[in-house]
Write a structure and sequence with these properties.
Two copies of one chain form a homodimer.
Chain A lengths: L7 H12 L12 H8 L3 H13 L3 E4 L7 E4 L3 H14 L5 H19 L6 H17 L6 H17 L4 H23 L4 H20 L3 H18 L4
Antiparallel strand pairs in A: 1-2
Helix pairs in contact in A: 2-3, 4-8, 5-7, 5-8, 5-10, 6-7, 6-9, 7-8, 9-10
The first copy, chain A, binds a DNA duplex (30 and 30 nucleotides) through helix 3.
DNA sequence: CCCGCACTGTGGTCTGACCACAGTGGTCAG
DNA sequence: CTGACCACTGTGGTCAGACCACAGTGCGGG
């Protein structure tokens, strides 16, 4: 019993409320002052709990009044995980190489899995959106950061075809967390136009393989695509 | 420009300090009062930042005085991620089925990868430890929760053989986050002694395959092991 | 020499206050 | 009656200052 912090009461309470379905995504939490009274802790402690929930992507709080104000339960694990990942990468506890490898693993397996998924409007919509993204990325003179953002989005879309929310979330987190490093690498590259062109060719190859349900081909193309690009950086 | 919260200054500062190596794991942060003065924010805001970092597994703070007191930079992503995962599972945004599938994916791929890793004292130590865990789990009358804890530890150890910290971390998080659900499922099982016996047989089979570098066999055994056990629950 | 206790600085918590913000509802001019 | 306007109210965001428990530190007495 080493010091159960005051705010943990709220976290435990929320978890229970969520599990039992009393509160679900989209609903509002009671006001901070109300929670403080209810748990007999200070508002400062309540706020610490809210901060933690916010950092986890479980809650979004807004000022003002009316229905849109207050702490609303959301579920955005990927942005929160991405943030946490970035910080842990900064500590150098998580080597970039391992990140890339993990990402490769998730993405190739997702490609293999998506091969087996039945056709659906959802699937067609995703493929369509992915194709559009690629087209946008062909825009001449597109800023590198826009390119990378669309690039990340493209990969996440492909992963989502596997239909596994958890895998998709992990992919999104890894991607968002590393996008800064990607930009850093590329900014030191003189041959960016050629590189982006090659990347686009690879993207189209992957998309084509996925569309035609050639899972093995897609996975292999992804592997080549990712390792090739990662090889451009100096990994110091 | 929508309201940059006061405490984000500290988060950004810490990330920078970590990336540039000014601060690294194991070192202490300045005191809360000092940080408050340095960033010209209130101590309450500083504490919110520390809370967030704490929730992310980046910092551990302790009371008292001397070198052991204060906020120390650590790097324990797995416990933090596990906590976040559990909460998001509670919101039902992350279906258990997807969690199990993701875990299966990571673990089988890790088994395939570990096949290729060279021998090393590290590897031998891990295999030894895994074997010991299995022996402990054979103890008659072992409480179910102890069994599951060792079980989780066993799987994480196997995953660590692949030598990828990120994959290992994700596995550990998934495992820790779901352990509660596992216990819930098992507690409604009357044939637990038989089940645990079967699980142990499967564990030994997996360990044997890994030890002998039969990656495919290990992966297949893991797949069977996990899907079989997951099949015992009713997935409502 | 060693034991014990006051001292000091740390995080943990609380109180009470003020601010900016955004809906709400009333008022008043047209 | 209709519309624009504005004070009101409740929300989160921030702050200042205080007190507590805790754990090392170091001085003092035995």
């Amino acid at each position: 019993m080493p010091a159960p912090r005051a705010y943990t009461a709220i976290l435990a309470w929320l978890e229970d409320q969520l599990r039992t379905g009393v509160i679900s995504v989209g609903e509002k939490l009671p006001g901070e002052r109300h929670l403080a009274e209810q748990f007999e802790i200070s508002r400062a402690s309540v706020r610490e709990a809210i901060r933690v929930l916010d950092a986890m992507g479980l809650v979004r709080s807004a000022t003002g009044s009316g229905p849109s104000a207050g702490a609303v339960v959301i579920s955005e694990p990927s942005t929160a995980l991405a943030w946490a990942l970035r910080m842990h990468i900064a500590t150098q506890a998580l080597p970039i190489g391992d990140i890339v490898e993990a990402r490769l693993l998730l993405e190739t397996q997702a490609a293999l899995e998506s091969e087996k998924r039945p056709d659906s409007p959802e699937r067609r919509r995703i493929l369509e959106e992915a194709a559009q993204l690629l087209d946008e990325m062909d825009t001449p003179g597109l800023p590198a950061d826009r390119f990378h953002e669309s690039d990340a989005q493209f990969h996440i879309l492909l992963t989502s075809l596997a239909g596994n929310v958890v895998v998709e979330t992990m992919m999104a987190s890894l991607r968002e967390a590393t996008i800064g490093y990607v930009q850093e690498t590329v900014s030191g590259l003189e041959s960016w136009p050629e590189v982006s062109c090659t990347l686009q060719e690879q993207h189209r190859g992957v998309l084509q393989a996925v569309r035609e349900r050639r899972g093995e081909d897609a996975a292999e193309a992804l592997r080549h695509h990712i390792t090739w690009f990662y090889g451009l950086s100096d990994h110091r």
